[in-house]
Structure formats: C-alpha cells, structure tokens
Amino acid sequence: MPSTPTPTHVSAITVTSAIGPGMRALAEAMKTGRSGLQPLDERPLGQHPPLARLPTWVGRVEGLDTPLPPTWQPWDCRNHRLAWQALQGDGFTAAVQAVVERHGPGRVALVLGTSTSSIGATEDAYRGLAQGEPFPSGKAATRLYSLHALAHFVRAVLGLGGVTQTVSTACTSSAKAFCTAERLLRLDLADAVVVGGADSLCASVLFGFHALQLVSPEPCRPFDRRRQGINLGEAAGFALLERGPGPLQLLGWGESSDAHHMSAPHPQGLGAEQALDQALASAGLDADAIDFVHLHGTATPQNDEVEAALLLRRFSQHTHAASTKGMTGHTLGAAGILGTAFCLQALQTGWMPGTVQTTDPDPAFGGRIALTPRQTEVRVAACHAFGFGGTNCVLLWGRDPAGTAEDADHG
C-alpha cells in the first residue's frame, strides 16, 4: 500500500504555454475553448532556421526570441527563456522569496521535471559547427549542456539552497516531481518545495516524433474518430508546495511503470490503473469522488484508446473528463505541471475545460469525453500523466473542506 501523503498545499502557481503567460490566460482559455495551436512556420527555434519543413501544428510560446537579462546570459537558451518567462508571472517569485525568508534558503527544495532540458542549445552548437562557425567558448559549459541545467538555473534565479533534483521520466516528469516533493516534506528534508518543469520546442523532438509517425499534420483531435496524432507544444510552470493543510491540497498520488514497451502503453492500461489505484488509496477516496479528470489525451490512436478504456471502467458518469492538448499541444515533460494548473483552476472557480478541436468523438469511448467547458462545484480533480517507457503518474488535487476556495483574481 502507498504511504499516506503528509498534508501539503499549493500556495502559489504560475504557468506559461501557447495559450498565453500566467494563470489568467489559462482561465480564459478554459472558459472559451481558445486554442494556441498554430502551423509550424519558418521562424527558428534557436539560432538557426530548421533544416527541413515539417507539416504540422505546434503550441508555440511567443516572446522567446528575447535573450535572458545580462546577469543570466551564461544560461541563455530557449528552455531557460521559457522558464524565465513563467517565473515572472502570478507573483510567484515574490511568494518563493517570502518562504525563503521564513524558513531559510537551505530548507526550500527544488524538484523540476524536463524531458529535453537544454538540448535545443546543443543542436544550435553542432549546427553552427556544421556550417563552419567556431564553437562558442561560452557554450562549452556543463551548466548549460546538462540534463540538470534547468534545475541549476532556476535554483540560481530563486536563490534556493535546499535539495535540488531533476526528474526526467518523459511525459510524466513534472507530475512525478510532485511525488518526489511530497516525500521530501514527509521526511522533513524541506519545509517547502518549488515544483514544476519546462520543455521547449526543438528539432530533436519534432523530427523524433515525426520519425515515429505520431505527428499530426492538422490541429490534434484528442479522442476523435479522425485523430491522426499529436501536436508538440512547449510550456513551463512552477508551484510552491508547503507542508500543512490549505485551500488547494495534494490529496494523493500514484506512480507505476508498465515495463511493456519503449513507446507504447500497456494495451489494457494496467500500469495507468495501478497509478490511479495508488493515488486513490493514499487519498482514502473512491473514484466516484473525482469530479474532474484532466486526461493525458495525446490524440494518438493507441494512447487515447487505452486511457478512454480506463475512464469507462473506473470513473462514474458524473465525472467531467477532458484533454487540453488541443489548446496547448503536448508539452512533454511540462505536461504534469500544466495539467495541475488546469486542475487547481477548476477547484478554485468550478470551470472545467472541454476537449478543444474534437468534433466527432470515437463512438467506442461511450460519449464520456467532454467537448465543451462546464462550470459546477469541483471538490476533487485528477491529473493523468502517461509517458514513453510505460511511465505513469496520477495526482489527486482537492479543496480543504474546512477552508474556502476563493476565486482567484485570474478566475
């Protein structure tokens, strides 16, 4: 049986994605069904234009052409610009600094998820060499060319001195970061944890998924009869997790591994169901208690089929279930923090998103996929995150019954 999580709550959160910077943009997109997807154009994702055109749509974040401020120039790359943009929103940095002053920097930990980290900067360096450019001396630094570069950068920006970890488990990375953070709090290795992740668009990801024949040439249609695959997206987000009860609580979590295939889920979704069972057991809840499920919903034929089957056999008819990939694209290692933001927004305001772009739901899914936004009371929300290698994570978020869930300014 999973350990019962120590009472923890989110005291601050911020995200940036293709639908815009900050929680206000996310809230507006939830209500209106606005999508940030756009055709992949010729604009470079780094210092060099793409070597070939790829006919697809992407969830591109605007404003990433601006370099980092001079203080942070040694860290400059698209992924860190993305993280920097997120850190500027929703008063998040100020909230972290208040916690640092209260507990001391050594008692504030950092756990971030990413699947690609700064690989886009690596691409730039080698493509420059191929074109006869000298390898820039400032780029030959482990601070930039490392899986841990994102965590080291954010740690420096926020002035943290506690435990620092990178979680890289494909598309579950920033969801599993919350599980690691809760353990740090339960073991008294930290008094607060900055949790989150970032993944940016780069050629390796775009052409890698294209080689697997998983990239859609049109806006993705999660759970649609005519779904053709994913749209890649980029996003960054951060949450401040603190010990003790609060209006927005981490009720439970579950992790598992299918150990079935490098890129395909278990055909019966056994690993995903194990993660759900662990999350429910640790929270002391039944699946009937869940009002909203933020589905992983990538719009690939097999992933949607397996997740929909899990939805049909485990969740009640009243549960509102939707995928937001048609708004943001699939943001890989940032999918967990972005899904969490949708869940927390639903808990605060009662607004739950629809499955944007989907117009002809696969009849095999029994009409259980919500196509339009809806507002009602939301007490418990589940965030699904499933990834390559059979990695699975389910987070359960809820409101403290004794507290009040005030509508946020961005609601």
Structure description:
- With 411 residues, the protein is of the alpha/beta class.
- It contains 11 helices and 16 strands.
- The chain has a single domain, classed as 3-Layer(aba) Sandwich (Peroxisomal Thiolase, Chain A, domain 1).
- The protein is globular.
- The C terminus is likely disordered.
List the helices and strands and how they pair.
Blueprint: E1 8-17, E2 20-21, H1 22-32, E3 38-39, E4 57-59, H2 78-87, H3 92-103, E5 108-113, H4 119-130, H5 149-158, E6 164-167, H6 173-186, E7 192-199, H7 203-211, E8 232-233, E9 235-243, E10 248-257, H8 270-283, E11 292-294, H9 301-314, E12 320-322, H10 325-328, H11 335-349, E13 351-352, E14 374-375, E15 380-387, E16 391-399
Parallel strand pairs: 4-8, 5-6, 5-7, 11-12, 11-15
Antiparallel strand pairs: 1-2, 1-9, 3-4, 7-9, 10-16, 13-14, 15-16
Question: Any descriptors?
Answer:
411 residues; alpha/beta; Peroxisomal Thiolase, Chain A, domain 1; 20% strand; globular
In short:
This protein has 411 residues and is of the alpha/beta class. Helix content is 30%, strand content 20%.
What's the domain count?
1
Distance between the termini: 37 Å
Task: Extract low-pLDDT stretches.
Answer: 403-411
Q: What is the correct CATH architecture?
A: 3-Layer(aba) Sandwich
Please tally the β strands and state the result. Answer: 16
Class by SSE composition: alpha/beta
Number of helices: 11
Radius of gyration: 20 Å
Give the strand order, joined by hyphens, for the main sheet. 2-1-9-7-5-6
Mean pLDDT level: 92
Order of helices and strands: EEHEEHHEHHEHEHEEEHEHEHHEEEE
**CATH fold-level assignment:** Peroxisomal Thiolase, Chain A, domain 1
CATH homologous superfamily heading: Thiolase/Chalcone synthase
Helix content: 25-40%
Strand content: 15-25%
* Shape label: globular
What top-tier CATH class fits best? Alpha Beta
The major sheet is characterized as: 6 strands, mixed
